[in-house]
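Fill in residues.
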């Protein structure tokens, strides 16, 4: 741990996959961290190793309700982020994005502090522009099964920029593309965790569609670095800012890599593509490169190997 900074940072969704890595990073930077989570998808096991740190505090709370605490910065990461979880209770998902944003923005306004919103590449929907730049407005179905998440995050961005314009609030908005790594939930329905769990169990690797659809995969350490740099960027630089790995892989390529690295005998099974599933997803990170001097450094092959080791030790029976 570096020298104690005296800075108190609030991380909502801090017991989740990405949130727990961010909490760990901030503690290592010397910050005091208040982790807020309602444990809908977050897990205590993600933060168990932090509990003995005297600068770490955890509060069970749902940000759909107001929160009255003191802090110097807020990272708002609270929201189910995988289709399985956010479609389970879609009304609550929208509430978390919208009511949660209002409550955290209100807290930041009262405290006169900066606040970072973890938005998502899902605001681009099934993009008709490739790769996606921050200037692209998206192609989103407002009434589909994914809309609770897509439109909830889009509305949250609207709220952040309205608070910025109306109340002069210091905001940062990150559009996060597919992120993976240790502490992913094994049953979150995301493609990396799905494929690894199926491979370790020797089950068929389930690909929806023909596997030609593409994604870009960013290792969690790279993503956390981007979030921290965005928060530390000069006042007035708001984003939105794409954070992700521009290296593009097809879903079929990903499946074959995971079969190779796990040594699995799994076979690939093709199933129909779900509605509104994007065909392409790749970030243009030119703005992050020029404004933050940030770009991912962990190749997919290396990140997958680290993630597979985690799943083998934690979940392989």
């Amino acid at each position: 741990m570096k020298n104690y900074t005296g800075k108190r940072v609030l991380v909502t969704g801090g017991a989740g996959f990405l949130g727990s890595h961010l909490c760990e990073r901030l503690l290592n930077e010397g910050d005091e961290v208040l982790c807020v989570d309602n444990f809908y998808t977050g897990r205590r096991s993600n933060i168990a190793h932090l509990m003995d740190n005297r600068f770490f505090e955890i509060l069970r709370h749902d940000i759909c309700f107001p929160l009255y605490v003191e802090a110097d910065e807020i990272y708002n990461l609270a929201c189910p982020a995988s289709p399985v979880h956010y479609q389970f209770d879609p009304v609550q998902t929208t509430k978390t994005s919208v009511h949660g944003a209002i409550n955290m923005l209100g807290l930041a306004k009262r405290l006169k502090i900066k606040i970072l919103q973890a938005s998502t590449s899902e605001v681009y929907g099934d993009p008709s522009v490739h790769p996606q730049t921050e200037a692209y407005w998206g192609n989103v179905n407002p009434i589909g099964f994914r809309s609770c998440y897509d439109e909830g995050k889009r509305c949250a961005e609207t709220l952040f920029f309205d608070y910025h314009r109306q109340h002069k609030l210091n905001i940062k908005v990150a559009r996060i593309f597919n992120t993976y790594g240790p502490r992913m939930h094994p049953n979150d329905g995301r493609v990396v965790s799905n494929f690894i769990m199926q491979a370790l169990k020797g089950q068929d690797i389930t690909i929806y569609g023909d596997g030609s659809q593409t994604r870009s995969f960013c290792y969690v350490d790279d993503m956390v670095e981007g979030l921290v740099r965005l928060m530390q960027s000069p006042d007035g630089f708001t984003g939105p800012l794409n954070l992700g790995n521009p290296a593009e892989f097809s879903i079929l390529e990903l499946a074959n890599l995971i079969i190779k690295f796990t040594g699995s005998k799994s076979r690939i099974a093709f199933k129909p593509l779900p509605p509104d599933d994007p065909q392409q997803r790749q970030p243009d990170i030119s703005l992050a490169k020029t404004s933050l001097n940030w770009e991912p450094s962990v190749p997919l092959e290396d990140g997958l190997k680290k993630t597979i080791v985690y799943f083998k030790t934690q979940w392989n029976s």
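The longest helix spans residues 90-111.
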